[in-house]
Automatic annotation (TrEMBL):
<dbReference type="GO" id="GO:0016208">
    <property type="term" value="F:AMP binding"/>
</dbReference>
<keyword id="KW-0324">Glycolysis</keyword>
<keyword id="KW-0460">Magnesium</keyword>
<keyword id="KW-0021">Allosteric enzyme</keyword>
<dbReference type="InterPro" id="IPR000023">
    <property type="entry name" value="Phosphofructokinase_dom"/>
</dbReference>
<dbReference type="GO" id="GO:0030388">
    <property type="term" value="P:fructose 1,6-bisphosphate metabolic process"/>
</dbReference>
<dbReference type="GO" id="GO:0046872">
    <property type="term" value="F:metal ion binding"/>
</dbReference>
<dbReference type="GO" id="GO:0042802">
    <property type="term" value="F:identical protein binding"/>
</dbReference>
<feature type="domain" description="Phosphofructokinase">
    <location>
        <begin position="2"/>
        <end position="284"/>
    </location>
</feature>
<dbReference type="GO" id="GO:0070095">
    <property type="term" value="F:fructose-6-phosphate binding"/>
</dbReference>
<keyword id="KW-0808">Transferase</keyword>
<keyword id="KW-0963">Cytoplasm</keyword>
<dbReference type="GO" id="GO:0048029">
    <property type="term" value="F:monosaccharide binding"/>
</dbReference>
<dbReference type="GO" id="GO:0005524">
    <property type="term" value="F:ATP binding"/>
</dbReference>
<protein>
    <recommendedName>
        <fullName>6-phosphofructokinase</fullName>
        <ecNumber>2.7.1.11</ecNumber>
    </recommendedName>
</protein>
<keyword id="KW-0547">Nucleotide-binding</keyword>
<comment type="pathway">
    <text>Carbohydrate degradation; glycolysis; D-glyceraldehyde 3-phosphate and glycerone phosphate from D-glucose: step 3/4.</text>
</comment>
Amino acid sequence: MRIGVFCSGGDAPGMNACVRSVVRGATSAGHEVVGINRGYQGLVDENLFLDSLGEAKMSARSVSNIIQRGGTILRSARCQAFQTEAGMQKAVETLEKFKIDGLIAIGGNGTFRGLNELVERWDGRVIGVPGTIDNDLVGTDYTIGFSTAVQTAVDAIDKLRDTAESHERLFLVEVMGRHSGYLALYTALAAGAEVACIPETPTDIPGMVDHLHSLQQTGKKSIIVVVAEGDELGGALILQDKLQKAKCSFALRTVILGHVQRGGSPTPDDRILATRLGDFAVRSISEGATAMMAGEINHECVLSPIKDSFSKRKELPKEMIDLLDRMSK
Ligand SMILES: Nc1ncnc2c1ncn2[C@@H]1O[C@H](COP(=O)(O)OP(=O)(O)O)[C@@H](O)[C@H]1O
Ligand SMILES: O=P(O)(O)OC[C@H]1O[C@](O)(COP(=O)(O)O)[C@@H](O)[C@@H]1O
């Protein structure tokens, strides 16, 4: 086969490890790999990855020394042109022109919506690999990049806790996650935060103020509140304002971690997940699978319909929400 591979949407640490795995898994099975730069934009613009000889082909050597690097050597993009009929037709023409017969897309739910449109217009096979720090995709326990983003946020909070404790302050720490509280909840659990404000549960300001006050009464010197950017009341700055108005007894500071969570060297967990799923995607596509997402559930590689990844909501484990409650006494 000639397999195309690209990264799309918000980048995630481990995307490089996944590209490496697709290339090495495919070439060792005798397939050719064509890298597409900048996700769907590269298909619209015919922007292919060229090797040192100027050929549109990814060899095993073209992915040397990238497993440890954040970002993606193929670049990523959010592509508006692909959301038009003309853009999709142009993408199909590019795939046909370069005789690509299988496409592996590493990205999030928007990327998979795009793949779902592509299968309606193109005869080749498509497989999605979940690459997003948000961990918001049905069909896999974890997405590539989530573990690293949690690690980055926890490292930052460990530092903030030192200064929070010295000054007896409360820090609101905003993490990413437009529609999902996974990143916020797992960060809060790992960092020993007292509260997580997430889109999945109502944020009750008077209740929180009472809880924080009672913690202060029992001797708590510092508080960390992890806020998902998508919390229904708003981000950390809005919550700071609301807590102040509700007469929170702690002095307040806000830190927005932002895109720092999307960078950095991937954790071993992300590298291994990326390596497993990239190789599994290659084996699946060569065995005839299409319109599926490659995921890992209970440590097993599994395929699930690509439609599920964006049409079903991935629930946060209630057990983890309750665990944080019990730990924040
Ligand atoms: N409904 C759609 N139809 C076609 N393409 C889409 C659709 N939704 C998203 N895409 C494509 O997928 C790209 C990545 O989606 P986006 O939501 O930005 O990131 P992610 O894949 O990380 O969720 C978009 O920029 C667009 O090109
Ligand atoms: O990079 P941008 O365009 O500012 O987007 C930020 C968004 O991308 C993310 O980092 C990742 O989301 P996706 O993987 O779904 O693109 C979100 O957590 C965040 O809300």
